[in-house]
Amino acid sequence: MSKDVAADRLDKVASGREPYSHVLDYAVGIVPSASALDELERVQSKFEPAAMIKVPRESLRLTLVTLASDLDRDAKKMARVREAINRAAREAKPIDITIGGIGCWPKWNKVREIWVGVTDGKEKLADLSRRIQAYIETTQSEARPIRSPHRAKIRIGIWKDIYVSSMQGELAKEISESINSFPIAHFITNELSLFATRPDETSVSIHSTSLGK
């Protein structure tokens, strides 16, 4: 889904030319650098394709705030949300981020999602997340920030249902422990993005703004 396609759909729904249906989820987050994305894909390759569905490269992001899923019902509200993101970005500075360590949700013997965590920069990310939430909520839109610094993470895979046994969970844990001993990547974030994600996990950035400008 390209940026133009997403924008065109928003316009059609807002003008009544196309009926609304919930096919997009929205979030504000950070795109890792190209080298960090390369390292994340290297980590993904350690998991068996039969066990884990890989999150596509274009959807590997550090989510800071999740938004209401009906934003494309109202073009004016979407415009206000974009300006709220711009405002939060102007008040922030670039953040040094180190990602490392593998975790899962909800627990290793019942794995549903696999993610990479943040080791450095997570407190600043949590502060930025709360700032974004505060400004977006002035637009009467729902916004859910990361609840605490240790929850900053990048989802890299979805564990397949047929592999949710305790044995497979232990296998995933063993893989994660072999990776957890060193940082995966370091990068400096200079940009915030508003993402639209489809049910197939493909994402597109529909709005981006630079930090500190």
Structural class: alpha+beta
Compute the number of structural domains. Answer: 1
**CATH architecture assignment name:** Alpha-Beta Complex
Main CATH class: Alpha Beta
DSSP strand content: 25-35%
Global geometry: globular
Strand order of the largest sheet: 6-3-1-9-10
Give the N-terminus to C-terminus distance in angstroms.
Answer: 28 Å
Low-confidence runs of at least 5 consecutive residues:
none
- Specify the CATH homologous superfamily: Cyclic phosphodiesterase
Biggest β-sheet strands, sense, barrel: 5 strands, antiparallel
**Which percent range fits the helix content?**
25-40%
Q: Summarize the helix and strand pattern as letters.
A: HEHEEHEEHEEHEEE
Overall mean pLDDT: 79
Q: How many β-strand runs?
A: 10
The number of distinct helices, counting runs of at least 4 residues, comes to 5
- For this structure, the CATH topology is Cyclic Phosphodiesterase, Chain: A
Please give the oligomerization state of what you see. single chain
Topology of helices and strands:
Layout (H helix, E strand, L loop, with lengths): L2 H12 L10 E6 L3 H11 L7 E3 L7 E6 L7 H16 L4 E13 L2 E11 L1 H16 L5 E3 L7 E7 L6 H14 L5 E5 L1 E7 L5 E8 L3
Antiparallel strand pairs: 1-3, 1-9, 2-7, 3-6, 4-5, 4-8, 5-7, 9-10
Helix pairs in contact: 3-4
Features:
single chain, alpha+beta, Cyclic Phosphodiesterase, Chain: A, 5-stranded antiparallel β-sheet, 5 helices, 10 strands, about 30% strand
Commentary on this structure:
- It is a single chain.
- The chain is of the alpha+beta class and 213 residues long.
- The chain has one domain (3-204): Cyclic phosphodiesterase (Cyclic Phosphodiesterase, Chain: A), CATH 3.90.1140.
- Helices cover 32% and strands 32% of the residues.
- It has 5 helices and 10 strands, in the order H-E-H-E-E-H-E-E-H-E-E-H-E-E-E.
- The chain has helices at residues 3-14, 34-44, 75-90, 122-137, 166-179; strands spanning 25-30, 52-54, 62-67, 95-107, 110-120, 143-145, 153-159, 185-189, 191-197, 203-210.
- The strands form 2 sheets. It has a 5-stranded antiparallel β-sheet. A 5-stranded antiparallel β-sheet has the order 2-7-5-4-8, sandwiched between helices.
- The radius of gyration is 18 Å and the shape is globular.
- The protein starts with a helix and ends with a strand.
